[in-house]
Specification:
Distance between the termini: 27 Å
Radius of gyration: 18 Å
Helix content: 25-40%
Bound molecules: S-adenosylmethionine
Strand order of the largest sheet: 3-2-1-4-5-11-10
Structural class: alpha/beta
Largest sheet: 7 strands, mixed
CATH architecture of the largest domain: 3-Layer(aba) Sandwich
Number of helices: 8
């Protein structure tokens, strides 16, 4: 797996997430509240953005959350964050290194979630099938798998497939304490034959004192189309229950920004 450079800068990742004003947490909390699980696995937990609030809910509702990620720096940041939580939350939480394509935890979960595009990192059908099969093996019978990916944006992909999109600045933010300033630009290319998009990001990060550093980060992502996405579940032993298109739980349709599949083992 080619590492995305920004995952070596988890504080920048967190700043990006704060700037995006992510509103997905209630969706995942409601999903778990409906399922009444005992054991939850979040794959690609990153810096714990969702994992820690889920563990807070788990400490009150009686479920345990395992967060797993392939990138050491992201996981370290999640562990630092977890240190600030009360004992009750820390005992409801475990953070583990691991790659979903080779998942071998020797235990089964009632719910497994892959929020916010983790599955885009699986670039080939072989990688996707390996991951989906491993997820199936880690679910208790009747357990729920929830995978979120972006819906394909055909206008953007058409432009990216021709000459690539022009480089534009898509983020220009300060952190809450006004000590770090992040400016990000991106240009996207897309190969329709492989369904891979390449988002070429450039970052410049400056302190309030004006010390700056820059780096590039390439995000190679598989673009999932709705029927293909559903097939991944049905060919690996899942029963597809619903395809959701937004965090307010609406069914997926042609204008939906995301695809969130719910499937049973
Ligand atoms: C877009 S981030 C999402 C992080 C977190 N779920 C969130 O919502 O903020 C994708 C995460 O998936 C992780 N990841 C990518 N490929 C992975 C793999 N094969 N196995 C496990 N984690 C992976 C990355 O390291 C990264 O932390």
């Amino acid at each position: 797996m080619a590492i995305e450079e920004v995952y070596r800068h988890p504080e920048d990742y967190d700043l990006e997430m704060a700037a995006h004003g992510m509103d997905d947490l209630p969706f995942w909390l409601n999903l778990l509240a409906r399922e009444h699980p005992r054991r939850v696995l979040e794959v690609g937990c990153g810096t714990g953005r969702l994992t820690i609030p889920l563990a807070r809910a788990g400490s009150g509702q009686g479920f345990h959350v395992t967060g797993m990620d392939a990138e050491g720096a992201m996981l370290r940041r999640a562990r630092e964050r977890a240190q600030c939580e009360p004992d009750t939350v820390r005992t409801a939480l475990r953070l583990l290194p691991g790659d979903v394509r080779e998942l071998r935890l020797h235990e089964r979960f009632d719910v497994i979630v892959l929020p916010f595009g983790v599955a885009h990192h699986l670039l080939t059908l072989e990688e996707q099938l390996a991951a989906w099969r491993a997820l199936h093996e880690h679910l208790a019978p009747g357990g729920l798998l929830a995978v979120e990916v972006n819906a394909p944006n055909l206008a953007l992909l058409a432009q990216a497939a021709d000459d690539g999109t022009p480089r534009t600045t898509d983020l220009d933010v300060w952190d809450a304490a006004h000590t770090r300033h992040l400016v990000r630009s991106v240009s996207t290319t897309y190969c329709p034959a492989t369904q891979q998009a390449l988002l070429a990001f450039s970052y410049q990060v400056c302190t309030a004192e004006g010390q700056c550093h820059s780096y590039d980060s390439q995000f190679a992502m598989h673009v999932y189309f709705p029927q293909e996405f559903g097939l991944l579940f049905t060919t690996t032993g899942f029963t597809l229950e619903r395809l959701i298109g937004s965090y307010d739980d609406k069914p997926f349709d042609a204008r939906s920004p995301v695809m969130i599949a719910l499937a049973r083992a």
